[in-house]
Each structure stands twice: as C-alpha cells, then as structure tokens.
Fold these 4 entries.
Entry 1:
Amino acid sequence: MSELPSTSYALLGLLSFGRELTGYDLKKWADSILRHFYGSPAMSVIYTDLKRLEEQGLVAARDVPTDEVRHKRVYTITPEGRTVLAQWVRNSPVETPSLKHAVAFRVWLGDLVEPERLTEIVEEHRTRTEAVLEELRRMETTTDPGLVYPRLVIRWSQRYYENERAAADQLLRELSVLTKRK
Amino acid sequence: MSELPSTSYALLGLLSFGRELTGYDLKKWADSILRHFYGSPAMSVIYTDLKRLEEQGLVAARDVPTDEVRHKRVYTITPEGRTVLAQWVRNSPVETPSLKHAVAFRVWLGDLVEPERLTEIVEEHRTRTEAVLEELRRMETTTDPGLVYPRLVIRWSQRYYENERAAADQLLRELSVLTKRK
DNA sequence: GGGAGCATGTAACGGGTTACATGATTGG
DNA sequence: CCAATCATGTAACCCGTTACATGCTCCC
C-alpha cells in the first residue's frame, strides 16, 4: 500500500473523529484548525480526494436529502480508512516540518528596502498573528474537553503563535534601532 | 511585470549579496540557511530557473574554466534583477507564513496510536530541532557581522527553534502523564 | 436586491519533487 | 577503492492552486 497524498491523510484525520461530514464541512474545519499547523486544502482537492478515497474504500459516502429535490453527500471514515490512517501515523517516516516564512525572507533581504517599509511589513505580520491567537483562544474554550489530543495541539499552536508575536516584537525593536541610526 | 515563482526570488535573494555563484553554490547556501525559514529548492529547479532568469536579464552568466577542458557557470545578479527583487520585497503582498508540521499533525491524531509511539515521534523531532539549533549557533559565529539583516534572521530562527524545542519538551511532559494514566 | 453561506464539482495550469544521466576530483 | 563533493542538466510526474461553472436559501 503506497502513500496517499498528504491531503488525503488530512481528510481521513478530520473524519477519524467520527462525525459524518460533507466536503464543505471538511473545508470549514480544516480552515479553522488544520490551517494553522498543517495547511488547508482547496475545495477542489477535497472533492476529488474524497472521490478517490471512496473508490479505495477508505471512506464511505451517503446521500442525505436537504429538501424535496436536493441532497448532499456526507462522508464517514471506514474501518479500513481508520487502519490506513493509524498505520501512517504510527509507521511512516515523519517529514521534517517545513516553513515558508515570507516575512522572515523579506527581513533577510532587508538591505534592499527602507527600514521603515520593513517595519510596516513586520507590523502587519504581528497584527495577523494577533488575530490567529484570538481565534485559537476562542477555539480552546469551544473545543470538547474530551478531545485531549486536539486540545494539546491547540495549546501547542498558541505557544507557537505567541512566540511568533514575541519574535515580531523583537524584530521591531531591532529595526527601530536601525532606523534611528540611518 | 508579473510575479516570478518564489524560487526565483530565493535565487535572486542569494545573489543579491553580490557574490558570483554557481548553481551548486546556490544550492549549498540555500540548504544551509534558507531551508530553515523559506525552504530550499531542488537542484533541478535551480538550474532551470537560472536559465530563465538569464533570459529575462535578471542574472548574468559567465563561463569560468575549472581546468584545461572543463568549466563552470557562475551567475551574478544584474541591476535589473536587483530592481525586480527590491520591488518585490517592497511592494508585493506578503503571503502569510505557511507551516506544514507533520509532528503536530500526528499529535493531533494521538488517539490513533499508543502514547509511547507518539512520545518517540516527538523525541525524534526534538533531536532534530537540537541539531538545527547547533547549526544555527555555528552559523551565527561564522557569518560576517556586516550582514546585519541575515544575522537578524539567524537570531530570529534560533528563537524559533528554541521555541520548537521547548514546545516539544512540554508535549513530552504532557504525554508522560497520559502514558501513566493509561 | 444582493451578498453571504451552503453545496458540488471540472479544467487548466504550473511549481516543485524525484528519478535518471554523466563525469571529474579529492580524501579517507 | 570507494564515498563524498563538485558540477550540470533533462524528463516524468503529480499535488495543489486558481479559475470557471451552477444554484439554492437566508438575512439585511
């Protein structure tokens, strides 16, 4: 059994919590939490992946009527799907985390721009980070306490973005020195 | 003037420090530092991208003989290349940093595996993080103090991976509780 | 009336990885 | 002598993004 694309594991992972979900639901959930540490696939990928996973017997689909004439497809993970996912979590080589940090990259090239502009960029990043932290805080309070591991990761993420914020602040301090010196 | 692929900016960025470099040099340098916060492109991409950048007049190539019969191609950034890069750094919308953290993802799915196995995975991650930190420490001492911004980012990265390590330690503590409780 | 949210897909494109190919030199 | 390093490329492939396409319901 060869590897699935990582998006498929993401979907299986979301479904592994046992709920019956539509593609649309999966996207929303991925956007709300997975995005912050593993990325969130585009809708189009979700629908095509779900189809493939169904062919492979890793998820099961069922049509549920939403009104007299229309319906939606809800998906559940199958026992085989659960097995494949668990095997992957347990045995597959753990890829090193990959980070693509456009802000850090721009700071790295700081000589090419005015420190003032660089400061703006880092400030914007700080603001965005704040927003993520706010989201994570809300998520912590609204997540079922029974979900021990997801809660662990929410706190892990909080710590991550708190560091991100603190690092941004540190950069801003250092940039202000460079600006004055100019 | 449309956007270049982000790999091209990475190469222009490396060349913007003014040295004459081969594709091979660029790969080494990207592996040593860019990898830690922006990713490092595969060799094949580097060579094809350099060719394209040359066609676009953003880099200039020169053949330097290595022995009687062989030679290597060394690249420099052109004034136009520098302008394009600076414009990008200054004006292009800053993509939000993206993180793909296979370790966090596995922890998130912790219910699927034994806490002992999860602990192993996090421990391996911690070890790798330590190695990166060691690398960054060496890099800090060997980097030209005149390179203010790169040094800023080296310290930023150190902070980042120190947080990564501390977060791993925290996870390990929490996992040990879960293991005992079992 | 219109925008946001729910809901599902297809098609085109491309950036980037892996595999394949070649070959010289240096050091353990 | 063999592995690592230096050095350069091509080809196949695919994962994932963007754009395109459709239509309903609910609320302001």
Entry 2:
Amino acid sequence: MLIHSTRPKHAFQPTALRKFSIVPNETTDADVEIDSLDGLMHLVGAVASYPSRTEIVHEDEAGDRLYKVVSGTVCTYKILSDGRRQIGSFYLPGDVFGLEFLEGHNLAAETITNVKVLVMKKSALAALVKKSSAAASELFQLTARELTRAQNRVLLLSSKSAQERVVGFLFEMSKRSSGTGNRLELPMSRQDIADYLGLTIETVSRTLWALEHSGAIEISSRRRITFRDLSRLMRLQQ
Amino acid sequence: MLIHSTRPKHAFQPTALRKFSIVPNETTDADVEIDSLDGLMHLVGAVASYPSRTEIVHEDEAGDRLYKVVSGTVCTYKILSDGRRQIGSFYLPGDVFGLEFLEGHNLAAETITNVKVLVMKKSALAALVKKSSAAASELFQLTARELTRAQNRVLLLSSKSAQERVVGFLFEMSKRSSGTGNRLELPMSRQDIADYLGLTIETVSRTLWALEHSGAIEISSRRRITFRDLSRLMRLQQ
DNA sequence: CGTAACATTGAGGTCGGTCAACCCGCGTGG
DNA sequence: CCACGCGGGTTGACCGACCTCAATGTTACG
C-alpha cells in the first residue's frame, strides 16, 4: 500500500521527476526584434522541453527565472500542510510565469501536458530591458495584466458558489485558449480544476453534470466541452 | 423603510458621495528625489483628501490614474449582480493602488477612514519613468510585489475554513500595518472583513469570539485585537 | 440621552465536503 | 481471448460548516 491511503483523496500525488532537455534556442538568430519584449526573451532565453507532469520550478527555488510557455500547459501550485494542493494559476501558450516569484517562498510550477518553455534569467532580461524603454513598458504591461487576472481570480474565488466558480472557470479558459467558437478543450484533469477552484473533484463533477443536464453545456468527452446556451451560462456566472 | 430590507443583510450600502478637496502638493518642491519612484510620484502627483466612506474611483472609470495612500485606509471592491460586495484588497499608508486597473471594467475604490492620497496620471508617471531606469525598475518591483500579494490572497481564499481565513487575515494585517508588537488596530468594520474574506459578518464575529475564547487573541475593543498565543494562531492558520 | 449603525448571539436550513462504491477505458500478461 | 489492475471520473448517502433570518446588545455621536 502506498501513501495513497494515508492522505485525503484529493491530495496531490507527487510524480517522479523525469529527465528533460534544454536545447539551444533555434530562434536566437541575428534577426530578432530587439525592441519588442518577445524579441528580447528569445534573445536571452533558451527553450526547454518537459514531459507531462514534471516539476519545472521547485517550491523553494531562487525565483530568479522567467518562463514563457511556447506550447502545452503549466500550472503553479503550493502544497498545504495538510496535503491539499492549491493551484495558483494555469499558463497556456503565450503566457509568462515567474513574475510573481520572489526569493525565499515560492509557488512550485509543474507541467500539465508535454510542454516547451522559453527560460531566461530575470537579471539578463532586466539588463536588456534597460536599453529599450518600449520593451520595459511591455514588461510592465504584462505584469499589470497578470495582476488584473489575479484580482479577477480573487473575485471568482471569494463568496462564489460551486456553480459560479465552475462557470467562471469555463469562461476564463474559453477566453484564454485560442478561442474556437464555443468548443473548449481542457488540458487539465478534474483534480486540477478542483484544486484551482478550491473545490473537491466530486463537486466539480456534479456541477458539470448539472450544467449539462440543464442544457447549458455539452460534455462531448472528458476533456471536451461545448457551450450550448451562452445566455443561461452568463446568468449562472453572476 | 429603505432598500435595506430588500437586500441581503450583508449587501453593500452605498454611501452618499461627499465633497473632497484636491490641494496643490506641498512637497512638490525643487528638492524632490527625481531618481526614486517615490520622488517622481510626488513630482507629478497631487494630494487629495477624502472623508471616510467616499468613493475615490468609480467602477467604470478610465483607470488611467495611480494612487499612493498617504494616510488612512482604502479598499477596492466590486458589487455583484445580486447585491453582494466583494472587496478586492485593502490599501494602507505607503501602498499603491490602481496598477491593476485597466480601461473598461474596473474595481471601484472607496475610503474606509479619512484618507489622503497622492494621485497621478499613469501617462505622466510613465513619461518620467522613461528617463530613470532606477524608477522604472522600482515601479516594476512594486507591481511584482502586488502580484505576489494577490497570489497569496488566492491561496488564502481557496479551500480554507473560516478560521483559517480569519487568522490569515489577522496575520496579514499585522504584518502590513506598522507592526507594533502583538497589538493590532483594525481600520475596517466586520462587514469589510467579511466581504474581504468571502464570509458573512456573523461568521467573522463568531470566529473571532472562538479565537478569543480559546485564548489565542484578546478583543480589547471592536477595532483592537491583541495576539495572546502566537504559536496557537500559527497552527490554526495552516 | 436617544438613536442609528455596528456587532453579537441563537436557531434552523443548505451547500458542498467526506467516504465509499462503482464505472469505464486502457494496458498487461496469462 | 479474458482476467486483472489501475487511474481517472462519476454517483450516492450522510454530515457538518457556514449561511440565513431574526432578535438582542453595544458603541459612537449628535
């Protein structure tokens, strides 16, 4: 028997750390746009690949690196003292994470799927940013947007029912993932969703079922959801 | 009879907007430190005074202003469609708010006590920041710190019991307010605390009573709390 | 002193957590 | 081919923490 039985059922199960490769960044050529933040990131960053369910950043790492998701999905999380896992945020392709990492206490970061990220030292980026005020302002904008998202998250979490949270989550994901109409492909498991919303896996499951039963959504497969009745969903979201 | 009875008891009661004054900033003299962010803020900002319970920023304002609290306490909030009020954050002297405001949809900001704030246009600040990379990096640090706080807030809110939330709140306030040992002066009402933690006022009240009864804290007066048993409190917080 | 806003206390209902069983798809191996 | 285990997901029964509604206490301030 494993730790499995000694923890609450929804506790995070650590996954074996697998090997990963950092390959020289193929896009670091002479023709990068050094006046855009993205260009700078490609200039000073290296691409790293991680398989699914691998830890990218450890909880007490220095926090001096910045990451840009190239492909796949990443989440940041923290393990609470009682074994529960709280997910800080999900990061989809194009998103940057690591901005909120300070020295000392951190969130950890883990891959949800196979992932390619662009890694760079904050100091290296900072040095370059100093020379380009356009890039500096872009970096600031990026952080401000991340802050807005965190604030919205706070609003979503506090004082919302399970249904409101789940619907809010669906909308957030729909908005963020390269929105192809009203079909939504979720990269994360029910457990991930639960840990993100501060609910249990059972409640997420029941809530989704209720939404489907009411005709608001259709659960085509476990990871695929179609919006059926937008206005009803809007109403449920507050 | 007022709207009072038609709303949930914990709903936000709008307060009459009172007059306020923007006075020329007395500190805008020749000797400001233009290479520090704070110096720049004083350079381009004006001091405004607001009485208690006044709206500073309306929910659908442009969001092009930045505010630094000089004295008093401010909160940002949102009124949900069912009348509940959700507080985004509290801001104490020295704190800066408005960073997360984007055009379009915003949080509103309201004073909790009498307040003096330093107001400035983001654009004006941005122009000055361009010339001082030290100030630019300070501004970035400031935003990053705010982001970290929002993330911690997310952790506090999701999947925590009422007791954990209240204790976490007490610790947060204790850390942030010019910490004089283990005595804590709360500027906000129970209702504000409840709206911040996503609880009801009754639950906050009962939880505080339970904490006092267990000997962890002492409620000297409504707004004054003394920590009696730090280690017990730490244990309750997760 | 009187009033209104704020806060506490009590009784009862409800939503979501807990625990447990079950389902389903998938890979493995006999 | 089926048996089996395994992980993720769903479903059901029960229970407790927190919300709701209502009454009562207390503080602040004219």
Entry 3:
Amino acid sequence: MKNIEIDEEIYQCIVSNTQFIGESASSILRRLLSIEAETQPSTSPKEPVVTKTVSQEPVPVTKPVEVTVAKDINETVFNYVNKEELAMQRGAVGRFLLILAALYRGHTTQFSEVLEISGRDRLYFAKSEKELAESGSSTKPRQIPDSPFWVMTNSNTTRKKMMLTKVANALGYNEDDAEKIRELL
Amino acid sequence: MKNIEIDEEIYQCIVSNTQFIGESASSILRRLLSIEAETQPSTSPKEPVVTKTVSQEPVPVTKPVEVTVAKDINETVFNYVNKEELAMQRGAVGRFLLILAALYRGHTTQFSEVLEISGRDRLYFAKSEKELAESGSSTKPRQIPDSPFWVMTNSNTTRKKMMLTKVANALGYNEDDAEKIRELL
DNA sequence: GATTCGATCGGAGGGATAGTTA
DNA sequence: TCTAACTATCCCTCCGATCGAA
C-alpha cells in the first residue's frame, strides 16, 4: 500500500464515484482509471467493475462454518469503514472512534460483549460517560458514534490498538482479521 | 490536502502518467480523471467536468452578463465545497481553509487579488509563509490547500468571516453570494 | 468616544512516557 | 526483587475569545 497526497477536488471526484459503502480509493480509482485507460468513450460507467476483482474467488459454500462466518464478518465490517474518512482524522482518537463505530454497526447485537474488556482498574467500555469517568481519573470518555457505548480514550496509541484487537476478538474475529482491524488505527 | 491509501498497481499507473519532473499526484490525477469524467469522448479535458453533475439547470446563455457571471461563480464555488467535509472539521480554521481552497479552485487566475486584503499592520494573505509570519506576531500562517497562497489564521471567528466576505467581494461575488460564503464558516 | 485590529493567553484535545502496581 | 502491564500526568499543539492597543 502506498499513501499519496491529493487535493480536495480530486478527493471529491474520487469520493463521488464510490459505488458501495466502504469502497476503497484503490477500488474506485481502478474503475475510473481503467475506463480512462481505454481511449474509448466509457460505455457503462456504472458497472461496478472493480468490485468483482476482489471477490474473484468464489465463496466456497461447502467450507466449514467458521470460515464462512469469518468471511461474512470481514465483509460486513470492512464495508462499514470508510478508509477516506479514516485518513482524514486528525489523530488516533478520531480513527479509533470511527473503527469502533463501524464494528458496532456490524455487530450491534453482540456489541455489549465489549463491556467485558477493561484495564486493571479502569473500565474501557461502558454504556455511559459517567461510568467510565468514575472508573479512573481523566479517562476522557468518548461516545462511540451512533451507538449507546462509550470508550476510554486516555491512553497511548499502542493501547488503543490493543483495545481494538480485544474488541475484534470479543466479536469473534480470527487473528488475521483482528490484525487488519488493529492496523486501521 | 488529503492522504489516501492506494495499492501498488494504482500507484504505478499514476506514476507512469507523470508528465513533468515533480508533478504532483493531484496534477496527474486531475488530468487522468477529467478525461474520464466526461461520459463523452473527451473534447476539452481541461474543463472542470465534475461540476456538471450538479449544474442540472441549464445555464441561461441569454441572460444579462452580471447574472450569468454570478451564476457561474456560484455554481463553480459551491460545487467545490463539500458540505460534509466542512461539517467534519473540528474547528473554524479547518472550515476556513476548505472554503478558501474552494474559492481558489474556482478562481485560480484572479485569486491573487486577495493579496490586497490585509489588516491594519498584518498581512492576511501572501504567497509564502514567511511573508505572513513577518508581518505580525503569531499570525499562524496556514497554506490554503492546493494553492500557492497562505492565510493568516490567528484571529477570532468573526474576523475570519469578515475575511471571507472580503475575499468573496474581491473575486466579484455579489452581496448575497458573499453572505452565503461567509455563512459556510 | 467609538470602532477596528492585534496577539496574548486560557482552554481543550491528544498521546508519549514517567511512574505505579500487581 | 524484577518485570510486565497499566495508569494518568504532563507536555505539546491547536483554537479562538477576549481585552488591550491603535
């Protein structure tokens, strides 16, 4: 993966060509550029050409359950994460909250399992600001966007990553996916 | 400026389209995308095509000049402003820069007129950080994204709004549009 | 005296790291 | 005691209201 810096206008142009929630910049650009690469007038620009590339390998329906589930989860969550929005965040806290929000959206019902995750004496997650605030000093509670959950935010990036890993695990992700999630931060 | 993550393939594709030493990703992409953006075979690739989506209502060619101009300007600029992106900014400074960037994009050639706008002793706009910094103390110069211009940032919101109004006027907007622009902040 | 302008300084957010505890 | 895990202090940067200056 490479990071490139582009201006607002280009960014908007790319974003406005998103064809599904969570589509990555690469995916969008591949579509746009490949159409352009042919000097031909674009025929059917709406076709989600790129997408297909990714899901090339047919999902093996016969495979063991765990694998299938993992795949579902994976797709679910990564669709909820908007890479561009992530990249735009000023600091790790913003990304942290965005990722958690995506996980919540993808696992609304089981999400309360994260309440089990906590530090030695501080709580990491709670259903109210107060609860978190009272479990330590300067915990800097923040609400996970569009959810009834709050997170403790006063920690270094390393710990935030650990927290993400724990959340991923609690929600049933395998190591690989947990790693991917962790690395979003 | 935005950072986006793209895969190697896309990256190579972009790089290989460089047309001069030091060309930025934005510049390359602008070329590539504007060719692509028109569903038609590219006629004049330099046209800010993206804009068209929004400008559904045909521009009345027969109307008086002033009106036409105002309309063009209006469309140009408001298309360049992404409301969501604006809303996402943490503070007024972020929005301020975004709006100015949009104005720059819409009026690249005349934009140097803003250099006339200044305070009693401080400069408000300049072509370099240094210039601004030296014109006062703690002016907090910031580059207007994707432009060679810098703005003074150390002021209250009211003054930032005034600055926007002045810029809008300098670029030929009427009171109404200037007001709209000011209110974006 | 009224108004405009400048830039200081308090406040908030972020997060590395020093310090603490198990 | 030594170490690993965890906490929260504290420093830094960014904002922008406020108040003194012109």
Entry 4:
Amino acid sequence: MEVTVIQNPLERLLGYQLRRASAAMLADLAEALADIGLSVTEMSVLMQIEANSDITQSEIGRILAIKRANMAPMTASLLERGLVAREAADGRSQALRLTDEGRTACAEAGRRIAAHEAKFLSDLVGAERDALIALLSRVWSGEQAKR
Amino acid sequence: MEVTVIQNPLERLLGYQLRRASAAMLADLAEALADIGLSVTEMSVLMQIEANSDITQSEIGRILAIKRANMAPMTASLLERGLVAREAADGRSQALRLTDEGRTACAEAGRRIAAHEAKFLSDLVGAERDALIALLSRVWSGEQAKR
DNA sequence: TATTGTTATACTCTATAACTATA
DNA sequence: TATAGTTATAGAGTATAACAATA
C-alpha cells in the first residue's frame, strides 16, 4: 500500500512560524474583543492613550507603525463613539485622552487580553514566556531602532 | 525640567511581539523576493508543490490556510507565467507540478530565504533558534490540530 | 521648512456566497 | 451528497500623494 506523506517545507522557517502563530493569536483576540465593539487595532490605540495621556495620534502611529493617513479615520471613529476626547496642543497637534467610557472599555479589554494571553501561554512557565518575548523583541529590533 | 517618557503597554504581550516580529520578517522577505517577481505567498505555494509533486491547489490551501476561492487566481497566475503545470487527476482535482522554470525560480527563492532567515537569526545559537521555532509551533498548535 | 492632521485613492489579503463539474 | 475549482464581490489593512494649518 502506497502512502504519500505531505510535508511542509516551510515549517522549519522562523518567518513562517511567526506568521502562523501571529495570525492565530490575532484571530483569537479579534474574537475576544468583537462583542465590546473594538478591533484589535482600536484597542491598541486606546491602550497607548491610557498609558500616555495627552499623546498625539501621530505619536501613536509611530509607536504602532500605523501611517498618519490611516490614524485619521480611526481617531475620528474613537472620538465619535465617545471613547476618546481631544484638545488643541502645540501647533496642529491634538492631545488625546480617554473619556470615562474609554477607560471602562480599556479596562474590559485589558481583562480579555489577559485571558487571551494566558490561553496561549498556559503551558509555558514564566521563564519560558519571558525568554520567548525577549527573543521576539530581538527579531524586530531593527524596526525599534528606527524610533 | 520635565520629561515625559512614552511607554508602550503592549510590549509585554506575546501577541503584540508576534505581530511586530512577523511583520518585520514579512516585509524583509517580500523585498528579497520582489525582483524575481514572486510574492511571499506565491513562493510558499511553489515550495509546497516542489516538496509534494502532484498536490492539488485545495490541499495547498489547507496547509497554508488559504481559502479555495483565493487559491484559484493565484494558481491561474502561476500557470500563465509558466512556473507550474497541471493535469487532470481524480474528479475535478488537478495535479500540480513545477515546470523547469518553476524549479529554477524555487531554487533562487530558496537561496534568498536562507539569507533572509540567517539575517534575523544571526545572533541566536542553533539551540535557541530551534527552541524559538518549537515554541512558536506550540502557539498555533490549535490550528495545526484541525488538519 | 518641517510637522500634524485630513482626504482621496489604490492595492493586497482575506472572507462569503453561488455556481459548475465530478466522484 | 461531498469535494474541487471558479467567479464575483465585499471588507479589512495598508500604501502613496496632495493639501491646509501651524510652528
């Protein structure tokens, strides 16, 4: 009897493993945030504002690698939904802050993120987890150096 | 003097590190393959055919998590460009094989991938590299179990 | 002049739905 | 009926270019 075993030549590549692992976590997180009406990117933006009050949308874009042009409609949507407020700062800059509603959404998102992360890290001990994250950080250290 | 240190609260999350590391490698690989006219996805498909002659496009889609509907135009393009040939197999299935030109492109892509991977893995010793890839594989083991 | 924010637009990926052909 | 392949299409996400407002 003849058996053809299908093998995937990409499996030993770091880039491939990163892509698949990243996509799997992204899909799970998107699902976890869906019913509070936040996309993963929107949640990321809210968390930047929470941690850095009065940050500008351009700065958030630089941190998260989102182009200025793409930050505009996202910021507009968060303002319109009452999650974020802004006021004039320097030049054309607008300082962003969370509203009470934004803080509430952020807190709920934080709990869901913690559960989501725990699900994927459950069989790693703390040291392995830290080592993995440190290794990943080195993978894109070139990007980080640009800032 | 007042200094505001901007900090990124996402930095300690596995999901975030995966996304950034994956995006960095993907962009680098896309650039490395650009002048041989292959996208990263096209290269991935060619390598599946090289490693598994007479595979069908549906099977490739299952391995790489590409929907059948999205495999169709990609296969058509690879056929049209003379990189892949096909012949009727079972039912509506079409067995795919690399042409000589496809094999040549695949070999060149393989060399570029090796250089690209080495660039990102250069400061990891072999054991670290293997451990990292094994850890990543566990991150999306849920997806793999579905196959 | 350099930076911020905005608009328009295009391209790639990805997703669903509907259809045909074959076992 | 289940599977393979195709087509059309819609939605993200991301890219560039051009413009106005401000230091």
